[in-house]
Amino acid sequence: MNINSSLSHRGQEPEEGILYLVGTPIGNLSDISSRALNILKNVSLVACEDTRQTKKIMTKHRISNTLISFNKNNTRKKIPQIIKLLKESNSVALVTDAGMPSICDPGEELAREAKLNEIQVICIPGASAVITALVSSGYPSSKFIFEGFLPKKTALRKKLLQEISQNEKTTIFFEAPHRLKKTLVELKEFCGGTREITVTKELTKKFEKHIGSNIDEVLTYFEKEEVLGEFTIVLKGINNDSKDEMNKSILKRELYELTNAGLSLSAASKYLAQKKNISKSIIYNLHRSDKHS
Q1: How many CB atoms lie within 10 A of CB 159?
Q2: Full residue range of the structural domain in which residue 229 is found
Q3: What average pLDDT score do residues 73-89 get?
C-alpha cells in the first residue's frame, strides 16, 4: 500500500481507480463546488442513492454521465460490482440524495470495503444538514453529538433519550415527519418543556424554517401546523436550570409508572422519596401541579 498516495493528489482529478465521496446540495441546487461538478462530469460513473435526484443536479449544471443506483436495498449486490470497477482503474463518484455520503447512508459500507481493498477514498466536501442546522441554532457548537435517527425499538429509544437528556453537549438528530410529534412529546418527558431546542426543515430552500426556542413552544407550534418534510433537530445541552426541569420530569414519569402499575399515590410517593432522598411533599406538589397544568 502506498501511504503517500493518501496524503496528496497526484494529478488532475478525477484519477483512475479512486472512489470519490461527493457532497451534494441539501436543498438549494447552487450549493455545490466547482470541484464537485468536475468530479461528477469526468468520473467513469456516478453511484447514486436515487438517480432521479442526482439527475436534477446534473441537468441544472448541464452535466451528463453514467448513473447507477446505489442504496440500502442493493448494497450487497452493488458493492462487489463497484469494487471490481475501481480495481479495473475506473473512477467512481458516490453521492447521496442530499448532503454528504456515509451520513445515515450505506456509503459508509462502500467506503469501508474500498479501504479493505486498498482503494483510495477521497472526500469532495459539500453541504451538510447537521452542520447547517447546528451553526444556525446559536447553541454551543465547539463540541456536539450527532445521533442520526433515533432507534425505533422502545427500550433502545428510551435508553438513548435518557442519555441525551443528561448530555451537556449540543445534540443533533434527524426525524421523519410521521414520528416528529411523538419524539417531541418524549423529549419533553425526558428533558422538560423548557429545554432549548430548534427544529429545522427545508434547509437552504426558499421556505427554510427554524422552529423554537424550547420544547413546549415547538409542541404548541405543531399542534396547529401540518407536519411535512424531513427534520433536523438541535437540542441544547443540559445546564443547571434544565437539570432541575429534567429532574422534575423524571420524577413525574416514575410516579406515573408506579401508580399506573397499581401503587397508591401515597405508596408511590413514599417509595420515590426514599429512593431519591427527597421530601415526600415535593413529589405530592409535582403531582398536584401536573394535575392542574
Answers
A1: 12
A2: 130-238
A3: 96
